[in-house]
Amino acid sequence: MSFTHVLGVARRSPTFAVGFGAILVFALLAAFADLIAPLPPTQSFPYETLRPPGSGQFLLGSDGNGMDVFSRTIHGARYAFGIALPAGAIMAVIGIPLGLIAGWRGGWVDEVLLRILDVLRAFPTIILALAIVAATGQGFLNVILVVGFLDSPIFARIVRAEVLALRNATFVRAAVAAGNPEWRVLLVHILPNAILGATAQLPLRMAWAVRISATLAFIGIGVQAPAPEWGAMIRQGAEYVISGEWWVALFPGLALIAMVLGLNLAGDGLSDLLDPKRRATGK
Amino acid sequence: MTAVLAIQNLVHRFPGGVQAVNDVSFAIAPGETLGLVGESGSGKSTIGLLATRLLAPTQGRILFEGQDITRLSAATLRPLRARLQVVFQDPWGALNPRMTIGRLLEEPLRLHGGNLAEARLLAERVRLPLATLGRYPHELSGGQLQRVSIARAIANRPKLIVLDEPTSSLDLSVRAGILQLLEELQRETGVAMLFISHDLETVRLVSHRVAVLYLGRIVETGPAAALFETPGHPYTQTLLSAHLPPDPFVALRRHRVQGEIPSPINLPPGCFFAGRCPLALPACNAGPPAMQPLAPGQEAACLRIADRTNRLEPAEDPA
Amino acid sequence: MTLLAVQDLHVEFATRGLDNRLRVAQALNGVSFTVAAGEVVGLVGETGAGKSLTALAAMGLLRPPARIPHGSIRFEGREIIGLSDRELEKIRGRRMAMIVQSPLTSLDPLKRIGDQLVRMQRVHDTAHGAAARTKAEAMLAAVRIPDPARRMRAWPHELSGGMAQRVLIAMALVNDPALIIADEPTTGLDVTVQAQVLDTLRDIVAARNLGALVITHDLGVVAHYCQRVAVMFAGRIVEDGPVREVFSRPSHPYTRALIDSTPGRIAQLGWTVTGGTPPDLYDLPQGCLYRDRCPRAATACLAAPPRIAVSGTHGAACHFAGEAA
Hints:
The complex is a heterotrimer. By secondary structure, chain A is mainly alpha-helical. Chain A is 74% helix and 0% strand. The longest helix of chain A has 37 residues. The two termini of chain A are 16 Å apart. Chain B is an alpha/beta fold. Chain B is globular. In chain B, strand 4 and strand 5 form a beta hairpin. In chain B, the strands form 2 sheets. Chain B has an 8-stranded mixed beta sheet with strand order 6-7-8-3-9-10-12-11, with helices on both faces. Chain B has a 4-stranded antiparallel beta sheet with strand order 2-1-4-5, with helices on one face. Chain B has 2 domains: 203 residues, Rossmann fold; 70 residues, no CATH class. Chain C has a domain of 177 residues: Rossmann fold (3-Layer(aba) Sandwich), CATH 3.40.50.300. Chain C has an 8-stranded mixed beta sheet, sandwiched between helices. A 4-stranded antiparallel beta sheet of chain C has the order 2-1-4-5, covered by helices on one side. The longest helix of chain C has 17 residues. Classes of the chains: A mainly alpha, B alpha/beta, C alpha/beta. Chains in contact: A-B, A-C, B-C. Chains A and C meet through helix 1 of A and loops of C. Chain C: This is ABC transporter ATP-binding protein. Chain C: It is a peripheral membrane protein. Chain C: It is found in: Cell inner membrane.
C-alpha cells in the first residue's frame, strides 16, 4: 500500500479523497495545535466573554469564560484523536483475536460473543456507557476504556463474519491439506484475509467512538470543561444558543461533524484501498 | 505390493441426512491413476475430501500406505500430509490471495522441513516462469495458477495426489498442458493419483482404472479401456452414450434413459438407478446389488449381468 | 433467408487505471458472420475470445464502458446499432430471444412458472389471458416437460437444473421468435441432462425453422448440434464454415490446436499442443494475433491475414489457409 496507491484510489474515489483529506487536516491541526492556535485553549480573558466572531483576537469569538473558541476547537482535535486511536486499538486488540477464534472454532467463545452482542443491542449504548463511567469514575482514560470495550464485541463480530466466510474457502482447505498446523492456518492464511474487510470498518468504529465520547461529554460525563473537548464545548455553548451567542456551540459542532463524516467516508474508501486485486503492481 | 490408498466400506452422511457416500471401497496401487467419474450428487468430491482426511467419514476405513488414518487427529495427520496431497478444481480460489507465488511454493517445503531454495526448482519443474515468483495469484492465468497448485502438491515427493476436477475450469488448450504435466510427473516419480472428474474423455485419457459413481455408490469399475469400450452397468452405458465426442463424424448412439438424478435424501433400499433403468427387474429394488464380474478386472453392480441381459438397446441416432 | 448479419463488428472497453490513465481494451476486432433461418451456428472459442460479448452486442445489450466504434449488426434486415432501448425492447424477447447459462438465476423466484410465461406474452402483446395460458402450457410440452399442466403452477426452486433450462427455452420461444441466441446453454448441467436439453433445442429449431446462434467452449456441442461454426480468437473470427468441413480440414492453426487439445486426439497423436496466453487486449500487436503461439508463424504474419476461402463457404483468416494442412 504505497503512497502513490493511496493517491490513485483517492483520485478514483472522491468520497475517499474527501474523507481522507478531512482526517489529514484534523491530524495536522492536532499535531501542530500549539503553533496554529493563536491563544492557549484554556486561557481565560474574564473581561472579554462571549465576544462574537471576528472581534479582536477572537477569530471565531469567545465563550462564556472568555476563552478563544477558535483555539479551543483546534485543540479539540487532540481529544478526538486521543479517543479515536486508543479506542480503535482496544477494539482491534480485543476484537480481532476474539472474532478469529469465534469464527474458526465456534463453540463457547462464539456463544459468549453472540450473547454479549445481544445484550449490547438490547441496551441503549449511551445508557450503558453512562452507567459504566458513573461506576468507574470520570476521567479521560476511563472514557477511552469504556468506549473501546463497548465496541470490541461489534468489531469482533465483523472479524467473525469474515472468518466464517473464509473458513470454507478452498485456499484455507488447501492450507490444511498442505500440512499447516492450526495456528498457522489461522494466522498466516485466515487473518491477513479477514483483516481486510475488518480494517475497512475500523474508521467507522472510530467515528462512533468520537461521537459517543462527545455525547458523554455533552451530558456531563467524561471529559469536563474547561478541557477543550468538542462535546464539552457544545454542552457549554448550548445554554448560550437561546440568548443568541450561537458561535460557542456551532464551531466545535461543525468540527465534530466534519471529523465523524471524514472517518466514515475514509472507511468506505478504505475497502477499495485494501483490495489486493486493485493494487497496482507489475506493469 | 500394498496399495498406496485403500478405501474400505466408506460411508459419509452430511448433517441434514444427505448420504453423499454409500459403502464405497477401492484401492490405488503405486504409480496408478484411478479415475473417479460421476455426475453431480455422485459424491466424488466428498470421497476426495475423505481420502485426504480433510473430512472424517461416518463409517468405514481409510488406509494410507497401510496405515489406518480414519480417525487420526489433525496433528497426527500433519506429517503424513507431505506424502498425501490434493489439487482442487478452482485454481483462482485455491491459493491464498495475499501470498506471493514464491511464498506459496516455499510453504510446503517449510512445513515439512524441506530446503526453501527448492521452490525455484519446483517452479521450473511445472514450467512456471520464474518472473511469476514475485507476483500475487490474481496476476496469473488459470493455467499458471493450477501449475502452482501442482508444484505445491509435489513439493515433498508425495505418494498420492488427489486431483479434484483439476482441469475443469480451464480452457481446452491450457487443459492439455496440465494433463501432460501430470502424466510426466507420474512417469518420473511413480506417484499414484486419484483423478476425480465428470469429464469422461479426460478420465479416459489419464486413468489406468476407472470407477463410476452414481449417488455415492460405485456402480462399475474396471480398466479404463475396457470400461469405455464395453460398459456393463446400464448407468455407465447411459453416461457414455450421452457424451458428445468432439468429432462430427462419430455417430451418437443415444440410450433414451429419461429423468434426472434423484436427490440423495431418502435413497431407496435397492439399486439407486432402478427408477430410471429400462432394464430394471423387481429384484433390483430388494437390496443393493452385489458386484458381478464382467471381464478381467471389470465388474459392475447390476443383477442383469449374471445372465448377460445388461445391454441397453441404443435409440436411433438422433443426428 | 439471413436473419442475423454481423459485419466487421468492433467493440472496445475504456477503463481508467489507478494512475487515472485511460486504457482501451479492444475486445472485438472485426467480427463478421451470419445466421440464416433453419440453421444452428456455433460460436466457439476460449475464455476472453469475445463469444459472449458478440452475443450481447447482437442482442443490443452492450452498456458503457463498452462501445461499438465500428461495425454493423443487421437483424431481419434492420440495423440494430443505434436503436433506442424502447425499440430494442420490441425486438428482444419477441423476434430474438436469448437463453443464458444460469437458468435458476434467470427465473423470477417469486412467480410461478406459468405466470412468468404468460407475462412474457403480455409484455410483448402477443397473447393475453386464456390464450396466453394455453400457449404457455403448449410451450412447456414442446420443451418436453412432463405433466405441463401441473408444472405451470410450479415455483422456480422446485425445478431441477435441467428442468429450469427447459423452462428458460420455453420462455425464449413463447413469442415465436425468429432467432435464438444461446450462451453456453448446457454448461453446468450434467452430461445426461445436457444431451436431453440439446436434443430438445435442436428439434424445436428444426421444427419451427428458427435460426440459432449457440455460444459454447465445448467442441462436442458444436460437432453434433451445429451446422456451421465460427471459431473465435482474441476478438476475431479466425475460421468459419460448415462443421464437418472445419473439423475434417481445419485451416487455421488455432482451430487445429483446439481440435488437437481434445483428449481423444491427444490419445491418438500425443501431446502436440502447447497452450499459451491470449494476446493483451489492451495492447494488441499488429498483424496476426495468433502469431506468438503459432507453430508456422512467418514474416508474412506481421501483416493482418485476410479471410482466405478454403472451399465453398469454408474460410480461415490465415496467410497459409490455402495450403494443404
